[in-house]
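User: Before I run my own analysis I want an independent prediction to cross-check against. Here's the chain; please return only the structure tokens and, at the end, one sentence I can use as a sanity check.
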Amino acid sequence: MCPRHNNLVEAQVERLELDHAVEDFRKWLTRGVTGEECSTVEPPSSPYEELATHQVQAHLAGALRAWGSALDCVGGYIIGIAALPSNLVKADLDVALRSLSKESPGNQVLTQLQADLEQAETAADPAGWRDWLLGMRNTFVHRGRRSVTWSGNLASSEVVDFTLRLPTAPALTEIDAIIQAGGVMAATFTAPPPASLTS
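Assistant: Structure tokens:
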């Protein structure tokens, strides 16, 4: 099995575990939710429940790491197949794309490869997904953990919508992102539903 495929399988496993962790956290949090103006979150009822938010963080970090590593493997393939003058051992996608851009002028094959890669990235949607994903992976791997942000809506004392929110600008610190965006909600977006995160 190739390294890219291994990473995609691991990303899928982490994504499935993330779904379970989010649901476990939702069940714990909603036990204390009422129709009153102020709701109280009940204490965790077990050691497992006490680790609920950490489970979410761990599996989110795992999925981001695996997706980012899969993209870096693609970078290695680009460098190797196109014989680009870059270090294959320390290859990543950004290095590969920069090298390809530098070497493609005057080379019809490399120019076509660059165009095909750009088309594939654009077709994947939404715009900027690659930079965001790699930025989030770098944030989770190399920096301190961010706060886990959630949003929820009530209807008849029932939580009908409870979702994880992700930062829109992972390259910024948490405080910088909130200040520049004008608030926590503006600095985050609702995590995509599980069906859209399949590898």
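Sanity check: The helical segments are 3-30, 47-50, 52-81, 93-103, 108-124, 129-142, 174-181.
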